[in-house]
Amino acid sequence: MSSPIYVAVDTPDLEAAKALANRVRHHVGGLKLGLEFFCANGHHGVHEMMKVGLPIFLDLKLHDIPNTVAKAVQALHMLEPAILTVHASGGRAMLEDAKAAAGLNTKVVAVTVLTSLDDHDLTDIGVRATAQEQVERLADLARSAGLDGIVCSGEEVAMAKRAWTDGFFVVPGVRPSGGVLGDQKRAVTPREALDRGASILVVGRPISLAVNPDVAAREIEATL
Fold it and tell me: How far apart are CA 69 and CA 59, in angstroms?
């Protein structure tokens, strides 16, 4: 079984991205490429990263009117990422159209509440619910819209798993025990996230900013 760890390759520098991926490739199960990487390198960059031989998680968090999101997903067909993200708050029609437009081998998962947000942040943007309540509501929407799963923090994944037993759960923002939280407000350890029902774990800075990323990846893998 491959590792559930997907390393977040968050850099605009293609050569640095390839170097990181090649250093950790034996201790992770996939590569997560987000907006920073994609805006700098586009389709060409993704094709280059595919040469590493690991599944690609394209974390673009698409959020627009249904037609625009569907056309954007169609434009990604030639890349055929293993996983693609959209924002659950885009609404049912957007979610349904995104899934319908995706390739057969691409899991479309909906971002619920970013791990950089807490209850106070939700209040600031007019959401009258706790993070857990909002994740539960958006997970129900994603499931009923036919998506493959959701992105949520390790604090909510157990609740989501109970309600959606065959869902695919992406847990970002995980941090090793004693690790620096940075801008993550609802973080758990990789082991805790996996025990609570995570399908894959997204680990960024604890690996990418380590002096020896391959050693850091191996040490996290050893805790799972």
Answer: 14
